[in-house]
Amino acid sequence: MDHRRSTRTAAAVAAGLLAATTALVGAGTAGADPRDDVKVPTAVGYGGAISTVDPEASRVGLDVLRKGGNAVDAAVAAAAALGVTEPYSAGVGGGGYFVYYDAASGEVHTIDGRETAPADMPRDAFIDPATGAPYPFTPDLVTSGVSVGTPGTPATWETALDEWGTYSLKKALKPATQLARRGFVVDRTFHDQTASNAERFAAFPATAELFLPGGEPPVVGSVFRNRDLAATYDLLAKHGTDAFYGGPLAADMVHAVQDPHTDPSTDLPVPPGYLALDDLAGYEALLQDPTVSDYRDYDVYGMAPSSSGGSTVGEALNILETFDLPGMDDAAYLHHYLEASALAFADRGAYVGDPAFVDVPLGTLLSDDFAAERACLLDPAAAAPKPVTPGDVDADDAACGETIAPADSDTENVSTTNLTVVDGDGNVVEYTLTIEQTGGSGMVVPGRGFLLNNELTDFSTVWRADDPNRIEPGKRPRSSMSPTIVLRDGEPVLALGSPGGSTIITTVLQTLTNHLDRGMPIGEALAAPRAAQRNTASVTAEPEFIEAYGPALKAYGHTLVPSGDQFTSAAEIGAATAVQIRDDGLLTAVSEPRRRGGGAAMVVEPARP
């Protein structure tokens, strides 16, 4: 590493130590005033760490760690708090993926808590019977009952606690329940997300009553309370998830989906959906093996299908491993990153779906031989025309360039949230959870205080027999969520993840290569300007990325276009969290300094400068 890099590293550590001290002061202040809105993006110290997008959620998780709870306990408690403060990104009405490193066994485990399609959902569910054409994706299909899948988040929490936690669900939910009752301070991000969804929210009286008091978004600096959600958490604390997947609460969800109650003045069609009591009663969060890819000196663990995160990140890393990324200049490195991502996305579209319904060739997709066949298509001097075609996983000793017909692109959206936790015993949790769109389906279950997801829009809109992501009853739609834990010599060194729809994959991939190959400190690697190549004609990029690298990448043939989310009005890609773990036990927790209003990193015992 050169002197300039060393200087930047020292500066980053110093900044992290200052941030850790600031975080400690902020935590003390929060004890006097229970509402904590101080966001510190980096914290350095020992004994445990947590990073989320929200200071209230991070504080909840930190308190659990300080009181002797483990990483799983803290993750569930923090996730429940995010259901309060980040209700447009996560909550009990959605699903997600949970990755856990167990320090005692040295093993990595995962939970697939993805939503499922109702048993009565037809293959033409996204086709407007009045026109015979697909519903417009936004806002018609998203803002509907037909987009709602069977939620998996409560089952994920209960499964994680039962398998690896020390807290009961009741104990884990208590801090978030208190938070929902006393309220949190509305920030600019919450206000803007509400305003961007005001038309959709106004279509549902229950949603408007909660999130549009007086017909307007909550004012920045005001206190937002959700007593209905507190009551829902109380119900789960008392009766467990049986009270969610059955009984009056389940009936309320089914009624909201099958017979949406809308404001008479709305122009949105709000197609009814198919969620039924039997779907809820039969839901199961799945314990399954992780994906693993050996990358240089590291083992990178992620989520297997139904998520495409582990396979696509892993394949792209395997492709990039054949090149000397550390020895390249910035433009050459980024060119290789973009091209490898496009190749992996092509294979994702062709082969990855719910393995209960699709024979996913996971071993081939993550093999070094297949990666070599794909890497030979990567021209170090020029971008390939997009979309590139998928590789042929059935070919014997395939020659370079042997491919099949391209697959369709997807419609997965950019919301979601992520958290990272490490405890004092070395257990690690990386957890990505979501309700899909910013604001999900837009439908609050009346009297229950939470939004229902629109995850079924992650299925392909038009049914095709050879599409691994086609609609099928009981199936889990393909996801891009990529919670990732990195080991070296069997010990965890890094955990990270991000929201962002299909840009989750590129965010995790870019952050990993920034850190592991380019030598960036983890805070810099996470904060660096981002670009996403998902096998499309143009590269989606943040404005800062275009300004810094646009001309150099144009010389390779890349076309860069600004990123943006119609539901948040933010030209951003992702909102990641991470914790780096050193051999001596020093933890560096990092979150976004700017994206989504910045995040909140905290440690149990801050290191002193």
Overall description:
InterPro entries: GGT_bact, GGT_lsub, GGT_peptidase, GGT_ssub_C, Ntn_hydrolases_N. Keywords: Acyltransferase, Glutathione biosynthesis, Hydrolase, Signal, Transferase, Zymogen. It comes from Isoptericola peretonis. It is a single chain. The protein has helices spanning 3-32, 55-66, 71-85, 137-141, 153-164, 169-182, 188-196, 198-202, 205-211, 227-239, 242-245, 247-258, 277-281, 309-320, 330-351, 362-365, 368-375, 503-516, 522-527, 543-554, and strands at 42-52, 95-102, 107-113, 184-185, 223-224, 286-288, 291-295, 298-302, 417-423, 428-434, 484-488, 491-497, 531-532, 539-541, 560-562, 577-581, 587-591, 600-606. With 609 residues, it is an alpha+beta fold. The strands form three sheets. Strands 1, 2, 3, 6, 7, 8, 9, 10, 11, 12, 16, 17 and 18 form a 13-stranded antiparallel beta sheet that branches. The chain has a three-stranded mixed beta sheet with strand order 13-14-15. A two-stranded antiparallel ribbon has the order 4-5. A hairpin with a 5-residue loop joins strand 16 and strand 17. Helix 2 (55-66) packs antiparallel against helix 6 and helix 14 crosses helix 15. The model is unreliable at 1-32 (pLDDT under 50).
